[in-house]
């Protein structure tokens, strides 16, 4: 299929490489063009602008936040009005997803992804996709090339973003719970590795506890797989949705503040799982 890919950050570069490997004809665009070079070296075409990347059947976007996606859609040489079906993988606000749905009434799919950069490289993402059924059918082979499973959330694109924001909130809540339990164990004289072995081997045998448990045990927060400022962005988007739908979410307030604390203390280049440091430090551990 002739497709465009816009946004070649940690996630986008890996996903675009898998689309290329699957045999698709790929045009790529990134704000900082040097990040496109490895893909161009392996057969992609460097597009001159976002609109230029959107002349095929599908254009996929994977950008940092609302402002970045707005620039690429509505800015100079943006993709609005282009012939390609826009498939948005970014984690964005419900409000922007609603706006994009209204402004691209001839076709828009929202398909945020679950999985960190390693999962993106291994084509092991989970795709949560919502949009018109025929558009989702068209995207099936593309999603199959980048992920291990696609979930269809319905025909209203913002529904997929609500699933994504809810999922990221639950990851942060799981990290918070693990960090508190591991800190309790450590101060009480039980090695956190032993605690994790018992819990992930019994009631908590889920990917989120295994993958983030390992990160917390090693305290391997750099290089960031998912940078804390992007995590804070997502908690802010979940909070806005909670206000819209009038849902008190007290745990969300805790993890959001722990993200603020760890960014203030450690800088922007730390992984979002480093909220565990805020928990440890509050308990007097280094
Ligand atoms: P990243 O490495 O920081 O990449 C961000 C991308 O957005 C880059 O291509 C960047 O371009 C572009 N960008 C930022 N501001 C822009 C602007 N104003 N105009 C145009 N382009 C702009 O981030 P990432 O980790 O790949 O994450 C990308 C998206 O995926 C985010 O929405 C994130 O929440 C979501 N996500 C991330 C993960 C993860 O584990 N990392 C997992 C699932 C979903 P430059 O190269 O020019 O800076």
The helix content, as a percent range, equals 40-55%
Q: What is the averaged pLDDT score?
A: 97
The radius of gyration computed from the alpha-carbon positions, rounded to a whole number of angstroms, is 20 Å
Number of helices: 13
Strand content: 5-15%
Supply the CATH architecture of the largest domain: 3-Layer(aba) Sandwich
Write the element-wise H/E pattern from the N-terminal end onward: EHEHEHEHEHEEHEHEHHHHHH
The CATH homologous superfamily of the largest domain is named: NAD(P)-binding Rossmann-like Domain
CATH topology of the largest domain: Rossmann fold
Question: What ranges have pLDDT less than 50 throughout 5 or more consecutive residues?
Answer: none
InterPro entries: 6-PGluconate_DH-like_C_sf, 6PGD_dom2, 6PGDH_NADP-bd, HIBADH-like_NADP-bd, HIBADH-related, HIBADH-related_NP60_sf, NAD(P)-bd_dom_sf
GO molecular function, one term: oxidoreductase activity
Active site: 164
Domain 6-phosphogluconate dehydrogenase NADP-binding: 2-154
Describe the structure.
The chain is of the alpha/beta class. It folds into 2 domains: 2-156, NAD(P)-binding Rossmann-like Domain (Rossmann fold, 3-Layer(aba) Sandwich), CATH 3.40.50; 162-282, N-(1-d-carboxylethyl)-l-norvaline Dehydrogenase, domain 2, CATH 1.10.1040. Helix content is 53%, strand content 14%. The protein is built from 13 helices and 9 strands. It has helices spanning 10-21, 37-41, 50-53, 66-74, 94-103, 117-121, 133-146, 158-187, 192-200, 207-218, 228-244, 250-266, 275-282; strands at residues 2-6, 25-29, 45-46, 58-61, 85-88, 108-110, 113-114, 125-130, 147-154. It has a 6-stranded parallel sheet with strand order 3-2-1-4-5-6, sandwiched between helices. A 3-stranded mixed sheet has the order 7-8-9. α7 links the parallel β8 (125-130) and β9. α8 packs across α10 and α8 crosses α11 (228-244). The chain is globular, with a radius of gyration of 20 Å. The N and C termini lie far apart (52 Å). The mean pLDDT is 97. The structure holds NADP nicotinamide-adenine-dinucleotide phosphate. Residues 2-154 form the 6-phosphogluconate dehydrogenase NADP-binding domain. One of its GO terms (molecular function) is NAD binding. The active site is at 164. Residues 159-275 form the 3-hydroxyisobutyrate dehydrogenase-like NAD-binding domain. Keywords: NAD, Oxidoreductase.
